[in-house]
């Protein structure tokens, strides 16, 4: 396989699937099946999931919620999604652990790098919930932080589009996709790959990012097998 240890960031928003809210069991099963194949191929898989299908702090602030409480609600939403994915993986016969950045035993163990590495080495999927545990950050930042921390080979950002484009492909039909692009070019073109906090953390720690469409089943394995899927952001 192309990578030995990956940090897979899954979008909370994608988890709602066609129903447009909450958790879609179809999407959960598709993600679980794809992750199972990666584990069976010997890849160590750590996962960070967003919470956008349930709550986003900024949305709450727009409706009069206190921003910090809204962000805390968003972080709790990522833990709900983490448990849902853990359950889907276990149903599929995959051993999976939820580690939380905020203490909440017995729902999940408190996150520590050493613990994550120990479970990964034992072939378990490690799902890290609770974001960074701090408000004013995003799940992309949590994914970048954990990717660097656990020394992943790459941060795989699974999303709704199949890579990084010259402009937002959902708004501009003439946008063209990059197979690869450097961090500097993303900055200079002002492209939206991740929020800049997350993006810069990756750049400064030489963590490559691969943006790809996780909603097309089989894409994760294609990518791991070295097929040209998505866009690689490199130094
Ligand atoms: N240059 C670009 N290339 C690709 N996608 C872009 C670009 N600019 C904006 N986008 C948009 O960014 C969205 C993904 O953003 P993000 O909020 O990080 O998603 P997620 O909820 O999957 O984490 C895509 O659905 C796409 O419409
Ligand atoms: O370290 C973090 C990670 C997440 N969040 C909150 O959790 C919400 C859900 O995460 P996000 O929107 O990043 O998820 P996604 O877009 O991937 O569904 C965010 O809006 C933030 O309010 C936060 O405050 N700190």
Strand and helix layout:
Blueprint: E1 5-10, H1 25-40, E2 44-49, H2 57-62, H3 67-91, E3 96-100, E4 109-110, H4 113-121, E5 125-129, H5 139-149, E6 154-159, E7 180-182, H6 183-189, H7 196-204, E8 209-213, H8 219-224, E9 231-234
Parallel strand pairs: 1-2, 1-6, 2-5, 3-4, 3-5, 6-8, 7-9
Antiparallel strand pairs: 8-9
Uridine-5'-diphosphate is lined by residues 11-13, 50-52, 56-58, 70-71, 74-75, 77-78, 131-132, 134-135, 137-139, 141-142.
How does this model look, in words?
There is one protein chain. This protein is of the alpha/beta class. It has a single domain (5-234), classed as Acetylglutamate kinase-like (Carbamate kinase, 3-Layer(aba) Sandwich), CATH 3.40.1160. It is 38% helix and 18% strand. The chain is built from eight helices and nine strands. The chain has helices at 25-40, 57-62, 67-91, 113-121, 139-149, 183-189, 196-204, 219-224, and strands at residues 5-10, 44-49, 96-100, 109-110, 125-129, 154-159, 180-182, 209-213, 231-234. It has a nine-stranded mixed sheet with strand order 4-3-5-2-1-6-8-9-7, sandwiched between helices. Strand 1, helix 1 and strand 2 form a beta-alpha-beta unit. The longest helix has 25 residues, at 67-91. The model has no long low-confidence stretch (mean pLDDT 96). It binds adenosine-5'-diphosphate and uridine-5'-diphosphate. Adenosine-5'-diphosphate binds next to loops. ATP binds at residues 9-12, 52, 56, 159, 165, 168. Keywords: Allosteric enzyme, ATP-binding, Cytoplasm, Kinase, Nucleotide-binding, Pyrimidine biosynthesis, Transferase. Its main location: cytoplasm.
